[in-house]
Amino acid sequence: MTQSEAAPNFSRPDQRATDQLRPVSFQTGIAPHALGSVLVAFGDTRVICAASIDNRVPGWMRAQGVEGGWMTAEYSMLPYSTLDRKARDISRGKSDGRTIEIQRLIGRSLRAVLDLKKLPGKTLWIDCDVLQADGGTRTASITGAFVAARIAVRKLIANKELEESPFNDSVAAISVGVYQDQPILDLNYPEDRDASVDANIVMTGSGRFVEVQASGEEATYGREELDALVALASKGITELNELQKEAIESAL
After folding, report:
1. Within the chain, how many helices (H) and strands (E) appear?
2. pLDDT digits (tens, 9 = 90+) for 77-97
3. What is the SS3 assignment for 164?
4. Strand, coil or helix: what is 99?
5. Any long-range contacts for 221-228 (C-beta under 8 Å, 24+ apart)?
6. Structural domain count of the chain
7. CB 179, CB 194: distance < 8 Å
8. Distance CA 135, CA 187 (A)
9. Nearest to 54 by CA among 34, 76, 38
10. Which runs of consecutive H residues, i.e. helices, occur in 94-136?
11. Considering the entire predicted model, what is its pTM?
């Protein structure tokens, strides 16, 4: 759906078209001690994604004799990433439910395009730290995590620590929603706050779905609206795939 198809009086807070991403950028090499790292920005949402390797697998894999390696993620919002200071998890003594949900989502998303048997005896860690939050932190984290992980894998292959890339596809994510009765792409915070339907969609570069999280906010939605949201997400993720490729190539 294009801006010309939107209702005549419809306007987004930042004047974007309904199917327009926020400005997206990837600054690679942001964390020199990580094998691969990137500062990903979706508009005013900024996340550092860093990939590290551990030459061992989790205890449960060793105990069960599971072949191959593992990949996992951690996610955190820094205290100054939001308008009101967000307490660190360590200060509260535990991670909140949202943090656990998001880091599991990041891990699932990357494992969907990984052949873990090609990561023998190793664990690939992805750390995603939100510097500034303006909506879509989980989708920015997934999209940036893939870039960081691909850069890390290339270094491992160059150092002869891996024989070949374990990745069999790319993965990216984007938010979509219904805002003022209009399906839109890549919600910023005001849109996310006021949306009647909010969805996060994760897709591979070949167009396969990894995850679709969609919910009505004290509202319901029909099949036509869901189809419109999926079409918007597919368009946005195709554009993100190209930006990911450029960022990975530029890091070589």
Report:
1. 6, 9
2. 887 787 778 777 766 666 788
3. coil
4. helix
5. 221/178, 221/196, 221/197, 225/178, 225/183, 225/197, 228/1, 228/183
6. 1
7. yes
8. 6
9. 34
10. 97-111
11. 0.93
Residues 179, 230, 125, 81: what is their CA dihedral angle, to the nearest 10 degrees? -10
Compute the distance between CA of residue 252 and CA of residue 240 in angstroms, rounded to an integer: 19
**pLDDT value at 224 more than 60:** yes
CATH number at residue 182: 3.30.230.70
Closest CA to 99 of 120, 127, 118: 127
Ranges of beta strands (E only) in 121-196 are 123-132, 171-179, 182-185
Q: Which residue segment(s) compose the domain that 197 sits in?
A: 3-250
| Burial (CB count <10 Å: 0-12, 13-18, 19+), residue 164 | exposed
Task: Give 128's strand partners.
Answer: 49, 75
Phi, psi of 122 (to 5 degrees): -125, 150
CA–CA distances in Å: residue 62 to residues 73, 108, 126: 19, 20, 21
